[in-house]
Design a protein that fits this description.
By secondary structure, the protein is mostly beta strands. It contains no helices and seven strands. Strands 1, 2, 3, 4, 5, 6 and 7 form a seven-stranded antiparallel β-sheet that branches. The chain is globular. The relative contact order is 0.21.
């Protein structure tokens, strides 16, 4: 990750990977690129976004947008 030269509140992500947890389940996320807007708590993933659960299910999409402040 690196900080945007135009906006210090924006992190630009290359090959982001992560785990989402909650309600007794966990999911892994991977993508080609991403943008995280720190102040707004918004994460946008682009390019072959893959969401997998522990049971082997998988969803693939071109874009995924998350509000990291919502529960």
């Amino acid at each position: 990750a690196f900080q945007s030269a135009q906006d210090p509140e924006v992190l630009l992500l290359e090959d982001p990977q992560g785990t989402l947890t909650g309600t007794g389940q966990s999911f892994t996320l991977t993508a080609q690129n991403g943008v995280y807007r720190q102040k707004a708590g918004k994460l946008t993933l682009d390019g072959q976004v893959v969401l997998r659960d522990g049971g082997g299910y998988e969803a693939v999409t071109a874009r995924l947008m998350l509000d990291t402040r919502e529960k």
